[in-house]
């Protein structure tokens, strides 16, 4: 199967739904790079759509862990809140789930089960990528240079890396030739685009799809104007 890889969604339910119309379950394996939650206007609905798809197509969908899912899980666990999470996206999530507590109870165990990466011999997909540091640290969910949080150069692998996490200012995906990495967080929730790549199983780019964000997905700027990027 080809790979259909979607970037950071952040509660942009209508844009995500429109992107999914480009996915063919018969021919494409769907991978989403994490950060379904926080910031956008329809977070519980976005997570529920992903959960249902994962339940319906368990053999052809993978939804990865993002740093925002990790922070959400910290908030609702005995570990306690992740420092600053409410100010860089979490308040929108907690406000929306207060209106749908049954969905929160359903979503927390599903989110906890999200894997850190998906790979074959030619492609490795994760949220923020593998840095050129010891693998134990690179796979540490809590490390600032780990696979959920890394900002900066990544290691060059035998595979093509595909990552989200770092929003592209111009709303277009880029390829870093030094690390052979595709960056596909194109800032949908910041008013730019949601991007998907269709790759061959061997990592050849077959298609790049960029959808402008649906304005109905954007947060109430008067209410969440304090949001800071993480």
UniProtKB/TrEMBL annotation:
Chain coiled-coil ranges: none
Alphabetized Pfam families for the sequence: Metallophos (PF00149)
SUPFAM superfamilies in the cross-refs: Metallo-dependent phosphatases (SSF56300)
InterPro entries in UniProt: Ap4A_hydrolase (IPR050126), Calcineurin-like_PHP (IPR004843), Metallo-depent_PP-like (IPR029052)
Domain Calcineurin-like phosphoesterase residue range list: 1-176
Full protein name: Serine/threonine protein phosphatase
Species lineage: Bacteria, Pseudomonadati, Bacteroidota, Cytophagia, Cytophagales
């Amino acid at each position: 199967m080809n790979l259909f890889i979607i970037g950071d969604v952040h509660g942009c339910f209508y844009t995500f739904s429109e992107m999914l119309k480009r996915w063919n379950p018969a021919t494409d394996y769907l991978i989403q790079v994490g950060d379904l939650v926080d910031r956008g206007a329809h977070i519980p609905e976005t997570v529920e759509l992903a959960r249902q798809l994962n339940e319906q197509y368990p053999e052809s969908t993978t939804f990865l862990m993002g740093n925002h899912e990790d922070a959400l899980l910290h908030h609702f666990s005995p570990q306690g809140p992740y420092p600053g999470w409410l100010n860089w996206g979490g308040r929108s999530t907690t406000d929306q789930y207060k209106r749908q507590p049954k969905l929160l109870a359903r979503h927390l165990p599903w989110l906890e089960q999200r894997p850190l990466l998906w790979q074959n011999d030619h492609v490795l997909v994760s949220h923020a990528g593998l840095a050129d540091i010891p693998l134990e640290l690179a796979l540490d969910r809590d490390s600032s240079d780990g696979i959920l949080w890394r900002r900066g150069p990544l290691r060059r692998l035998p595979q093509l890396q595909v990552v989200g996490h770092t929003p592209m200012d111009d709303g277009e995906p880029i390829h870093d030739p030094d690390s052979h990495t595709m960056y596909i967080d194109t800032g949908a929730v910041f008013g730019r685009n949601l991007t998907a790549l269709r790759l061959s199983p061997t990592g050849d780019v077959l298609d790049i799809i960029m959808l402008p964000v649906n304005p109905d997905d954007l947060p109430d700027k008067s209410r969440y104007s304090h949001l800071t990027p993480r």
